[in-house]
UniProtKB/TrEMBL annotation:
Cofactor(s) annotated in UniProt: pyridoxal 5'-phosphate
Name of a matching Pfam family: Pyridoxal_deC
Alphabetical list of PANTHER family matching this protein: GROUP II PYRIDOXAL-5-PHOSPHATE DECARBOXYLASE, MIP05841P
Coiled-coil positions: none
Protein name, per record: Aspartate aminotransferase family protein
A GO biological-process term: carboxylic acid metabolic process
Alphabetically ordered keywords of this record: Aminotransferase, Decarboxylase, Lyase, Pyridoxal phosphate, Transferase
């Protein structure tokens, strides 16, 4: 007999969700409530007797408009955060309803097959080697970790060392090379893997953040032993791409493993007009990206892709006597990601890819890049505003009055204004506003309104008036 407690609670949650979504395009992007205000509304000693579920849902929903940043807003330009595409959100509700532990096939054949197909579609979309293995991790942090774990396994295996069995104590030295502009998740992954950040050999980058291939070649010529090279597709500040074809040629000549951090830049491969930015990326040994960025699926979903499936599986797989693991072609997710128990996060990826198709993903990426160029053009027309980067993708770096303090004040003022939300960064020792356009719903009007808000704050701070 069906449990009659579900329908009223789910209907109530749906009503609150629809209210939130309907207000999202026009609401202030800033979360206005302070920690103290939220604690006053939410904190109390844990009661001995619980409250009605409807009351709890109402309480939480009541705080969302003031306490949750509108990260899914079409005017949210911080941290390369995508919004939830409608089909992705609806599918994610199904994922929560099904409540599958997607770790092994026997628990959920449906999720296993869906993720297998989604992985094949991603390889085709990115035009990467079709024999590559795919794992759905929490985000690009753990995708980078997974890929670099496979790299560590492979490179030490080649010199006769079993890192999974014997660890790193007494192991041959493993060289790690990365750009001076590599993302912090590369450093964190290397910490998790026991390789450490002090061991990274840094290669200088140019004014846009692209690794110098010739300097990489000079460094590789001085290194002996197993080597991992980390390149980047989409600099987190400028959106620039390392010269991947040249880097791949150098790493192959040296016998090194090439990993590419493509948290959002890998999605340029879905666009015929942009894929040239990532020329040569298919020659790498592993790739990491996020689906909760440019594919606009709900958090959390990263993707680890490894050309050499045996190395990927050896670095990740777990076994236990009580588990029922596959011996045939069926897919156990524990073979491809660090988690044992895990959410079926690949299902919204499947649904969104199926709903959009390749042309739909291409249009989404192209449209966001067009909106980034629009933002840069509007802001650059304002006297005293400087765009610091070549806007090749979806990232825009902006500086105001050629002054660090004024730039930081504009950023803080825009955040408080609430028209849009964006963050700040330091680029080549200069304070800069960082604008990332990643939301499927961001329109030309959203950009125009947001740019006008930025200019308004800048003029007020400069004393020019509106």
């Amino acid at each position: 007999m069906a449990d009659d407690r579900f329908p009223p609670l789910l209907e109530r949650a749906q009503a609150h969700a629809l209210d939130y979504l309907q207000l999202l395009p026009d609401r202030e992007v800033l979360a206005r409530a302070s920690r103290d205000e939220l604690l006053a509304a939410l904190h109390q000693p844990l009661a001995a007797r619980g409250e009605p579920g409807a009351a709890v849902i109402d309480l939480l929903a009541a705080q969302a408009q003031r306490g949750a940043g509108a990260c899914s807003s079409p005017r949210y330009f911080g941290f390369v955060i995508g919004g939830s595409h409608p089909v992705a959100l609806a599918t994610d509700w199904l994922v929560s309803t099904w409540d599958q532990n997607a770790g092994i096939y026997v628990i959920s054949p449906l999720v296993s097959v869906v993720e297998e197909v989604a992985g094949q579609w991603l390889l085709a979309l990115f035009d990467l080697p079709r024999e590559s293995s795919v794992g759905f991790a929490t985000g690009c942090q753990m995708a980078n970790f997974t890929c670099l774990a496979a790299a560590r396994h492979a490179m030490l295996r080649r010199v006769g060392w079993d890192v999974e069995g014997d660890g790193l104590y007494g192991a041959p030295r493993l060289n790690v090379v990365a750009s001076a502009e590599s993302h912090v998740t590369i450093d964190v992954a290397l910490r998790y893997l026991g390789l450490g950040t002090n061991a990274i050999r840094r290669v200088p980058a140019d004014a846009q953040g692209r690794m110098y291939a010739d300097r990489l070649g000079e460094l590789l010529a001085t290194l002996e032993g197993p080597t991992i090279v980390c390149a980047q597709a989409g600099n987190v500040n400028t959106g620039a791409f390392d010269p991947l074809r040249d880097i791949a040629a150098l790493t192959r000549a040296h016998g090194a493993w090439l990993h590419v951090d493509g948290a959002f830049g890998l999605w340029a491969r879905a666009s015929r007009g942009l894929r040239g930015l990532a020329d040569g990326i298919e020659l790498a040994d592993s790739w990491a990206t996020d689906a909760h960025k440019w594919l606009n699926v709900p958090y959390d979903c990263g993707v680890a892709i490894v050309r050499h499936a045996d190395d990927h599986r050896a670095a990740m797989t777990s076994t236990a006597a009580y588990l029922v693991q596959t011996q045939g072609p069926e897919r156990d997710a524990v073979d491809w990601v660090p988690e044992f128990s895990r959410r079926a996060r690949g299902v919204p990826v499947y649904a969104t890819l199926r709903a959009l198709g390749g042309e739909g993903v291409e249009e989404l990426v192209d449209r966001n890049c067009a909106r980034a160029r629009q933002m840069a053009e509007i802001l650059a027309d304002e006297a005293g505003v400087q765009v610091l980067n070549d806007v090749v993708l979806n990232q825009v770096l902006v500086r105001f009055g050629d002054d660090d303090e004024l730039t930081r004040q504009v950023i803080a003022g825009v955040q408080q204004d609430g028209t849009c939300w964006l963050g700040g960064t330091t680029w080549h020792d200069l304070a800069a506003m960082r604008i990332s356009v990643s939301n499927w719903a961001t329109s030309a009007e959203d950009v125009a309104i947001s740019a006008a808000g930025i200019v308004r704050v800048f003029r007020a701070l400069r004393g020019d008036g509106p």
